[in-house]
Amino acid sequence: MAQDKNNKYIKEDKNNDSKKKYKNPVSSKAGKIIIVTLALAMALSGIISLIIMACMGKL
Predict the structure, then answer these.
(1) What is the rounded distance in angstroms from the CA atom of residue 54 to the CA atom of residue 15?
(2) What's the CA gap between 55 and 35, in Å, rounded?
(3) Which of 57, 36, 38, 35 is nearest to 46 (CA)?
(4) Where are the stretches annotated Disordered (predicted)?
(5) Start-to-end CA span in the chain (Å)
(6) Mind giving me the DSSP string for 6-24?
(7) Do 31 and 25 form a contact (C-beta atoms < 8 A)?
(8) Can you tell me the distance from the alpha carbon of 17 to that of 57, in angstroms, rounded to the nearest whole number?
(9) How far is CA 20 from the centre of its chain?
């Protein structure tokens, strides 16, 4: 950081374009498909386990 004559720090602009920008996976089409698929699989597994438990008489 640089200082001016009054001993105050001056912010310097940092142009670090070498680092990759983080992109949220949900914003892409593939990310949305994966999330919806996982949510449906979890819901179906819960329903199937409830059906199996009801058939065995444990519910």
Answers:
(1) 62
(2) 30
(3) 38
(4) 1-24
(5) 67
(6) TS-EEPPPP--TTSPPP--
(7) yes
(8) 62
(9) 17
Would you mind telling me the total number of residues written for the chain in this entry?
59
Sign of the torsion angle spanned by Cα atoms 6, 8, 13, 16: positive
Each as own residue / partner, the long-range contacts of residues 26-33 (CB below 8 Å, 24 or more positions apart, any chain) are: none
d(CA 26, CA 28): 5
Task: Please name which of 37, 15, 16, 34 lies closest in space to residue 25, comparing C-alpha atoms.
Answer: 34
- Contact between residue 59 and residue 50 where contact means Cβ atoms under 8 Å apart: yes
Query: How high is the mean pLDDT in each 10-residue block of the chain (59 residues)?
Result: 63 66 86 96 96 86
